[in-house]
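Notes from the pairing session

We agreed to fold both candidates in a single pass and log them together. This is the raw record for the first candidate, unedited. Please don't reformat it; downstream parsing expects exactly this layout.

Candidate A
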Amino acid sequence: MGRSSFPALVGMAEVGEMRGVSASTASNWRARFADFPVPVANLRCGSIFLLTEVQKFLDAHPNLGAGSPRAVISEQTRDGIRSAISGGQDNVSALARDFGVSRSSVYDIAADLLFA
């Protein structure tokens, strides 16, 4: 049987997996970046995108996600994370933005690193 000519499709969970982040984080990219691909369909389970278009977007934004948020942030020093948290929401927001994750992810990861 021959190969299908139907294009490869992905949802937000797959987009997140491509960069080692959650579907929720990938959804944030859709809201934050005007060049995020337009869905080819919107179903009850969520939006569906062409894989080729998503890959172009990710190629244009190589630092988004940069792998698992826990892996990326765990490379930072404990003192640096502690400093960001003690510096307030602006510092935590900046750290989250730098790594393409939510503020709550920064707090969760910091708790794991600092208090585990």
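Candidate B (folded immediately after A)
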Amino acid sequence: MKIIHAVTSLDKGGAENHVILLSSEQKKKNNEIFIFVSKNSFYWLNFLKKSKIEVFKPSFFKENNLFFKIYKFFKDIIFLTNLIEKKKTRRVTCTFALYGIGILFFIKIFCL
């Protein structure tokens, strides 16, 4: 099974720790695991590489003001929607509710 986990960061925190442990167990059960990270953080990156879990990050991290935050949110949603289509997966978990809403919106509009 192909699974994408969408998280805001790879920092050491509750949701991040849960996703890392969950994805490593899913990988042990021969699932294909991909992680999308919205923010440029690195705490769990080496662990994921050793576990052979692919991590995807957008190229835009600027969030100086409200305009950039909104712009980044939509860029992230488009990136994540394209990742879902490219990897041909329908299993996506989101630790940030707005990503889930945004993905559903794009999937419904573009019939992915």
